[in-house]
Amino acid sequence: MTNQSDQSSFLYGGNAVFIAELYARYLEDPTSVDPSWVRFFQELNDEGIAVSRDFKGTQWGPRDLKVIGAVDPEAAVAAAKKGDKAAKPAPVAAPSAQPGAGASRQAVLDSIRALMLIRAYRVRGHLMADLDPLGLVKREQHPELDYRSYGFTEGDLDRPIFIDHVLGRESASLREIVAVLQATYCGKIGVEFMHIQDPDQKAWIQKRIETIRNQTDFTARGKRAILERLTEAEGFERFLQLKYTGTKRFGLEGGESVIPALEQISKRGGQLGVEDVVMGMAHRGRLNILANFMKKPYKAIFSEFQGNPANPSDVQGSGDVKYHLGTSSERDFDGRVIDLSLQANPSHLEVVDPVVVGRVRAKQFRNEDTERTHVLGVLLHGDAAFAGQGVVPETMLLSQLKGYATGGTIHIIINNQIGFTTAPQYSRSGPYSSDIAKGVQAPIFHVNGDDPEAVVHVARVAVEFRQEFQTDVVVDMICYRRHGHNESDEPAFTQPLMYRKIAAHPTTRTVYARKLVAEGTVTEAEANALVTGFQEHLEKEFEAGKSYKVNKADWLEGKWHGIVQLSDEEEYTEDTTGVAEATLKRIGLALATAPQGFNVNRKIVRQLDAKREMIETGKGFDWGTAEALAFGALLAEGKPVRLSGQDVGRGTFSHRHAVLVDQDNESRYIPLNHLGEGQAHFEVIDSPLSEEAVLGFEYGYSLEEPNSLTLWEGQFGDFANGAQVIIDQFIASGESKWLRMSGLVMLLPHGYEGQGPEHSSARWERYLQMSAEDNWSVCNVTTPANYFHVLRRQLMRNFRKPLVVMTPKSLLRHKLAVSPLDQMVAGTHFLRVLPETENLAADVKIRRVVLCSGKVYYDLFEERAKRGLDDVAIVRVEQLYPWPKDTLKHQLARYPNADVVWAQEEPANMGPWSFVDRRLEYILGEIDIKAERAIYCGRRAAASPATGLYKNHAGEQQWICDMALAGEADQMPQPFVRATKLSRLTA
Ligand SMILES: Cc1ncc(C[n+]2csc(CCOP(=O)(O)OP(=O)(O)O)c2C)c(N)n1
Q1: What is the distance between the alpha carbons of residues 980 and 982, in angstroms, rounded to a whole number?
Q2: Which of 209-218, 347-356, 571-580 has the lowest mean pLDDT?
Q3: Cα–Cα distance, 432 to 918 (Å, whole number)
Q4: What is the pTM of this model?
Q5: pLDDT at 16
Q6: What does the buried/exposed string (b/e) look like for 326-335 if buried means 16 or more CB atoms within 10 Å of the residue's CB?
Q7: What is the β-pairing status of strands 872-877 and 833-834?
Q8: Nearest CA to ligand 1 atom 13
Q9: CA 126-473-289 angle, 5° bins
Q10: What is the distance in A from the centroid of ligand 1 to the CA of 378?
Q11: What was the pLDDT predicted at 554?
Q12: What residues are in contact with ligand 1 under a 6 Å CB criterion?
């Protein structure tokens, strides 16, 4: 038996006649057909395609025939609104008067076959739609869309067929049915929606498009407005081409219809409750959208073309090219004001997607937009990028997840049928660039970009659908690119035929103006006047651009008020991150308490008891508890905390247990949300298995929420390189390029514990290499208390910087890695450097200072104790960047007779060695100390971060401790000498 999933291909041809017969039998007596067919026919019922078997008598006839093909969409939508998602769409009542009562079995078969044909159009009609303005993609007759495949002949064309309002008609001739289907599904719009599982959504689309043949009848005013928008879009590019010939602008020409589409989304969206639109897009057409949609002044853009900066000269930052910049504005759409924001983005295509979606989520949180209908995300894509970049499906994956949902994003693909020089057949395996969107059941509207009315209509349907169902929607606008990839590229090198066609092809505005003139909506003179009027306006703006001065940077406003730009080296003021003891105790007790009757796992009960003991004694606070206290104290101060990443609720290493799970019924309890009245919300989300999209999302979230602590945790720190683009392009450099601060925290489990090459190193050398201009903090803290402070510091400073923390694994349970409560109480603060803690020989007697960072400290500490050494001091650098030069200098200056060793677990080409080597040399040069340079003690340079053999690991670790504490300078490894196969250390 053929499976329902490929039903559409067997519903036609010779099968169609057979199936219609079978179906007729099923209607008569369901037990007379194989049960698998019964299931199939029932599924067709669900899709609103089938005929019910609710008839009586043996005489076939339309009077007996109750077609439920016309699912009543209004009833379905009403049911959905009531939240009754499971409710089946109500069947339309049986028609009261039908032609040919007592008609033959033939009439029934006609109805069934006609319904199969209708279904085929719904599924495959888009394949025959007229989508390509250039006519390069040939539309071929598809057999499933041929009525002859269903047993009809030409002689049947004019016979009335009962279809019970399926297309809004009780009955119609086959000729009429085909005409309606062609108009609806094979015009300038092709719709893909039959992959959607939700019957309400399908029914909604069917009704929305079938009743009006998938067209809006625009008023003369509406048409004129579309022409005006096209005139501006085209005129702006032409003007730039004229004034700045050959300058890169990645023009929109060929895709101008996207401007009226965006207008429509905002306008119709506004009517449906949208108040805020956050947008992301790549280079193509960006300047046009900045000017003509975001309403960035033309003169500002012209001034940037003249080489002037986009920000006032007193604002620091390295800036970015003009086609990457973002902006925000307020616009009035028919009396409704909408906040528009276009996210700045790097050249890396599509990577902005999760950032925008994260921003949308944060705005919805702040605006208490629980329905997610007031803040809308809109993403514009290129066709090659949408199909090619993995971050696209990763971002879509988030769209329906509890912790990341934003009520659906509207995706518009500016599908110019080329990616740089690469044609679609080399860009993707499926027929459409948009195919990936089917994975999240998004409806997809393909539309011919040369029919701006169709584009605007589709934009309208898309926003209506999104507002109704809170899912992603895709508009695939098929157009062309008039010039090369940029304006100085020669496209005919690679696409000569396409570009010959384009050269002869009139512009979208010209095509539309001719149409409006032909139908009498505007005169030719009026259409021309729009063009000349706009050019004159641009000329004036161009003149104004010559003396244009930006008077303020659009940042640190609104929710960012009170935050300042850090103007110099990080100030070493002590931050007020400590918290009153009573508050910490109150939070601690809440953490250790589950509600009455909640059946906590036995092992966790022990952990909760241990926490209670920490609170009662004020001693022995472990990592997980210190973290929870840091979060809890922020929450109690009214500052929300959001932590996302893989398995963060429990914690990869089973140390966090931020979510307790009842062992009887799996209900969840989050102690941090039960601290007391007035506290802020703690959101802890187990993320899907994505690094790039989730980290991008959290970064976006942090841009909107300066007063929330937003954290992303990698499962192991090395997995963060799956999100490297987000780190390089946004987190490290976003403030410098675009004046956008972020207080995002990245938690990266790191440390050499013999787990092999993949789980030892978070590769923090990369973060250190990217450190400059106080762009972020990079830390590897060794005590729970310092971790507590560094987290709280994120929101206590009057500026925001991302924080990258190497977090521990074995230290989570290490008996020495604990802190007393009094290191977290009021008056205490984060320590960038932790000095020697033990009572050693007098400072002048210290023969060696071992500097280190992170977990290796405890290995060194224990080895020193074992050896009973009292002339080797161990100093921990807890924050590597910003480099705590003064504090470190102060500590090193205590030991004038010491040599200085830098000990690390990582190979010499990794970890902090390259970063600290010269910096230490500068410090040593400035103080009175025996050492001139630090001696390296660690693994030799290596290709892979760690050995896969535990025995080797243990030997190497021991050797590092031995050498660091007692080795002579000439025994130390030469960091960059090639290691042999035998040993990474001694070759
Ligand atoms: C991640 C990434 N890889 C490569 C590039 C270089 N690049 C810039 S534009 C472009 C083609 C994009 O094609 P498409 O997505 O169809 O957009 P279009 O330029 O045609 O509007 C490429 C490959 C890039 N910017 N980003």
Answers
A1: 5
A2: 571-580
A3: 54
A4: 0.91
A5: 66
A6: bbbeebebee
A7: antiparallel
A8: 419
A9: 100
A10: 19
A11: 66
A12: 284, 347-349, 382-385, 414, 416, 418-420, 481
